[in-house]
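From the methods appendix. Each design record in this collection lists the tokenized structure first, followed by the designed amino acid sequence. Records were kept in a plain field format so they could be parsed without special tools. The example shown here is representative of the layout used throughout.

RECORD:
FOLD TOKENS (141 positions):
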């Protein structure tokens, strides 16, 4: 593994460590000012302010932890990917989604990153929204 690969892998691991601590400031510190965020089945947002607002919304509606994390990166360290399982609890109804009643869910997730200047410049997440919806409508995973 090259130094650039190791650096990118560590950056993404640090990002998820901050995520698991509920440390939004720690996550934001790892991102470029112009970070591009591709939201699963949603819009693309740009910038730290938009990413911070997204994290605040998520924290209000969900409690999540990334487990079984595997991170891979290109030899030049400019792109990385992560595969993990989200273990979550739906705390407060998110508009347009089923009603929250503390339902628990477990979802496999794939995430993709661009790395620039030692920071994350793009975050793209993919998971199965239909599976999440089924789990919360059934009450618990």
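DESIGN:
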């Amino acid at each position: 593994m090259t130094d650039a690969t190791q650096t990118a892998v560590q950056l993404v691991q640090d990002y998820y460590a901050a995520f698991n601590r509920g440390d939004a400031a720690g996550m934001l510190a790892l991102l470029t000012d112009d970070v591009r965020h591709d939201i699963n089945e949603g819009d693309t947002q740009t910038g730290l302010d938009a990413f911070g607002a997204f994290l605040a919304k998520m924290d209000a509606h969900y409690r999540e932890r990334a487990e079984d994390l595997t991170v891979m990166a290109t030899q030049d360290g400019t792109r990385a990917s992560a595969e993990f399982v989200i273990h979550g609890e739906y705390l407060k109804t998110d508009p347009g989604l089923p009603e929250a009643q503390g339902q628990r869910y477990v979802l496999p997730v794939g995430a993709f990153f661009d790395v620039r200047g030692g920071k994350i410049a793009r975050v793209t997440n993919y998971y199965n929204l239909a599976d999440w919806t089924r789990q919360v409508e059934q009450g618990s995973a």
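APPENDIX NOTE: The beta strands are 31-38, 44-46, 62-73, 79-90, 104-116, 119-126.
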